[in-house]
C-alpha cells in the first residue's frame, strides 16, 4: 500500500524535479485535458490473453500463509504462519495488499469483491484462467471467513503498519509485530464490515454451482456481517485511527459501503429485505451523489452500475433512478461532455490522483465495460444532457485505457510487470526487491533490506502481472523503487483489470 518510508524530503523533491526535466522529451503535445483523449501511441496488437494470465498470476506473489504445492510464483515461500495466535484466533492466509507485509482487511475485501465481479461478468471469456481466478478469490474468502468467524467481532488487520514500514524485509523474514486489530459493537466499522459482506456475497455467486456448500457458507456469513455493519454504525478509522491512517482511512465514510453491501446481498439472495433496504435508504446513503471516484474507499459508482442492471435487465422499476445515477457517473468520465470531471494526461490516460492513479483507471475501465454490457443487452444508451453515447463508445474509451497500461503510451512502457519487453524493473515491493529464500536462505534483517530499497539495480524477483501505480499527469515514469506513489503494485489495481482483460481477450480465447 502507500508505503511511507524514511526518505529525505529534500532529496525526494530534488529527484522528482530532475526526473521531470530528464523525461520532458518523452511527453507529447499537450491539449485540453477534458477533451479528445486519443490513442496516440499505437503499438502492436496486444495479447490480452497473456496479460489476463499474468494479472491473475500476480496474486500468488501476494499470498500470505502456507503456500500450496500448486504455487507457481516459486520465489515466494511460507510466511506469517502464526498470525492471530496471540489472540487465540487463526488468521493465517489472505493477501498482503501491496509492497508491504501488512494484511489490511478493508482493501483485501474490496479486491475480493472486484475479482468476483470480474468473474461474474466476464468469467465465460476466461477459458483456462477461470480456475485460477477462482483460486485467487478463494484464497481471500478463506481468510475473510476466519476473520468473521466470531459473531460480533471482525478482525480487520494483522500487522502494525508503523513498525512494518520502518523495515524493508521479505514476508518470509518478518520480525515486526503481528498485532491483530478488530472491530466490535463498542468499536464499530461499518465500512470494512459492509465491504467484507459485499466480498462474501459476490464470491458466493462465483461458487454457487461449483461448490454449493461453500457458497452457502459465504452468503450466510455475508448476511450476518452486513447486519452487524448496519446495526453498529461508525467508521473503522475512528476506532483504529493510529493503525489504519494514513494508510487506509475511510475518507468517504461508511454509507457507500452499506449501499454497496446491500446491492450485493440483493443480487446474491434475492431476499426482498435488501431491495427494501435499498429503496428506503439509498438516497440517505448517497445514491445520487456526484462523486466520480471508484476504488477501495468509495463504492458509490460501483453500486450505481450494479443496481442499474436490476432496472435494465430485470425490470425492477423501483430502481429506475439508478440508471440515471449510473449515466451521471459515466458522463463524468466522457471527453466532450460539458460537465465531465475527467482529466487526461497528454498521452490519453485518465488521471484522477497522483497516488497510485492506475487503480482508478482500472476500476473505471471495468465499469465502462460492464455498463456497456448492460446497455447492449437492454438496448439502451448513456444520456448526458442532450448528448447520447452508445455502448460501443464506452468500450472504445475503456479499451484505450487498457492499451495505454499495456504499452500504448508516450514511453512505450507496459505498466504490467512481465508483460511486453519494456516494463517497470524497480517496483516498490519488499519480496520482489530482495533476494529470494532460494537464493539467500539466511534471514535479511529489518534495516539491512534498505540497501535494496535505495539500490538502482532491477528487482531480482519478477512479480509477474503486477500493475504499478503508473505515470504522473504528464506521462512520466521514473521507474524508481523509492517512489511508492508510482512504482508500488496493489491487489486492488489488478482486480478490476482482470475483468477488462477477460472481455478484451474473449475473441481470441478458445
Automatic annotation (TrEMBL):
Record bears the keyword Chaperone: no
One Gene Ontology biological process: cellulose catabolic process
Family per similarity comment: Belongs to the glycosyl hydrolase 9 (cellulase E) family.
Signal peptide: 1-24
Protein name: Endoglucanase
Reactions mediated catalytically: Endohydrolysis of (1->4)-beta-D-glucosidic linkages in cellulose, lichenin and cereal beta-D-glucans
Domain Glycoside hydrolase family: 48-500
Enzyme Commission number: 3.2.1.4
Keyword DNA repair: no
Gene Ontology molecular functions: cellulase activity
Pfam families hit by this protein: Glyco_hydro_9
Assigned keywords, A-Z: Carbohydrate metabolism, Cellulose degradation, Glycosidase, Hydrolase, Polysaccharide degradation, Signal
Active site (catalytic residues): 428, 479, 488
PANTHER family, per the entry: ENDO-1,4-BETA-GLUCANASE
Amino acid at each position: 500500500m502507500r508505503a511511507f518510508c524514511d526518505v529525505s524530503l529534500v532529496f525526494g523533491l530534488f529527484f522528482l524535479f530532475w526526473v521531470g526535466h530528464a523525461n520532458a522529451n518523452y511527453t507529447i503535445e499537450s491539449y485540453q485535458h477534458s477533451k479528445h483523449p486519443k490513442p496516440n501511441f499505437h503499438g502492436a496488437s496486444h495479447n490480452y490473453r497473456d496479460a489476463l494470465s499474468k494479472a491473475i498470476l500476480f496474486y500468488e506473489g501476494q499470498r500470505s500463509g502456507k503456500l500450496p504445492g500448486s504455487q507457481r510464483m516459486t520465489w515466494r515461500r511460507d510466511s506469517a504462519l502464526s498470525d492471530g495466535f496471540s489472540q487465540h484466533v487463526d488468521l493465517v492466509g489472505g493477501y498482503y495488499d501491496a509492497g508491504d507485509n501488512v494484511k489490511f482487511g478493508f482493501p483485501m475485501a474490496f479486491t475480493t469483491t472486484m475479482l468476483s465481479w470480474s468473474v461474474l461478468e466476464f468469467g465465460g471469456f476466461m477459458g483456462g484462467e477461470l480456475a485460477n481466478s477462482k483460486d485467487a478469490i478463494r484464497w481471500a474468502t478463506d481468510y475473510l471467513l476466519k476473520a468473521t468467524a466470531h459473531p460480533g467481532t471482525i478482525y480487520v488487520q494483522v500487522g502494525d503498519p508503523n513498525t512494518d514500514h520502518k523495515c524493508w524485509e521479505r514476508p518470509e523474514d518478518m520480525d515486526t509485530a503481528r498485532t491483530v486489530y478488530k472491530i466490535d459493537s463498542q468499536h464499530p466499522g461499518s465500512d470494512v464490515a459492509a465491504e467484507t459482506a459485499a466480498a462474501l456475497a459476490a464470491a458466493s455467486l462465483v461458487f454457487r454451482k461449483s461448490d454449493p456448500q461453500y457458497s452457502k457458507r459465504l452468503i450466510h456469513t455475508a448476511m450476518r456481517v452486513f447486519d452487524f455493519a448496519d446495526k453498529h454504525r461508525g467508521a473503522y478509522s475512528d476506532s483504529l485511527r493510529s493503525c489504519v491512517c494514513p494508510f487506509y482511512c475511510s475518507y468517504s465514510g461508511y454509507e457507500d459501503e452499506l449501499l454497496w453491501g446491500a446491492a450485493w446481498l440483493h443480487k446474491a439472495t434475492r431476499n426482498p429485505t435488501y431491495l427494501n433496504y435499498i429503496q428506503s435508504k439509498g438516497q440517505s446513503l448517497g445514491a445520487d451523489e456526484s462523486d466520480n471516484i471508484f476504488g477501495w474507499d468509495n463504492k458509490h459508482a460501483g453500486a450505481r452500475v450494479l443496481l442499474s442492471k436490476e432496472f435494465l435487465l430485470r425490470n425492477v422499476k423501483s430502481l429506475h433512478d439508478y440508471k440515471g445515477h449510473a449515466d451521471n457517473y459515466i458522463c463524468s468520465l466522457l471527453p466532450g461532455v460539458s460537465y465531465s470531471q475527467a482529466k487526461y494526461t497528454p498521452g490519453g490516460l485518465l488521471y484522477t490522483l497522483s497516488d497510485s492513479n492506475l487503480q482508478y483507471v482500472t476500476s473505471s475501465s471495468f465499469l465502462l465495460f460492464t455498463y456497456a454490457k448492460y446497455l447492449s443487452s437492454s438496448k439502451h444508451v448513456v444520456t448526458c444532457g442532450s448528448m447520447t453515447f452508445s455502448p460501443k463508445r464506452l468500450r472504445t474509451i475503456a479499451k484505450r485505457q487498457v492499451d495505454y497500461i499495456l504499452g500504448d503510451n508516450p514511453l512505450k512502457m507496459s505498466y504490467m510487470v512481465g508483460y511486453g519487453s519494456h516494463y517497470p524493473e524497480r517496483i516498490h515491493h519488499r519480496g520482489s526487491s530482495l533476494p529470494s529464500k532460494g537464493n539467500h536462505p539466511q534471514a535479511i534483517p529489518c534495516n539491512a533490506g534498505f540497501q535494496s530499497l535505495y539500490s538502482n539495480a532491477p528487482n531480482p524477483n519478477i512479480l509477474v502481472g503486477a500493475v504499478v501505480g503508473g505515470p504522473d499527469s504528464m506521462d512520466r515514469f521514473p521507474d524508481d523503487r523509492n517512489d511508492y506513489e508510482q512504482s508500488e503494485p496493489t491487489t486492488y489495481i489488478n482486480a478490476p483489470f482482470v475483468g477488462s482483460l477477460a472481455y478484451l481477450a474473449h475473441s481470441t480465447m478458445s
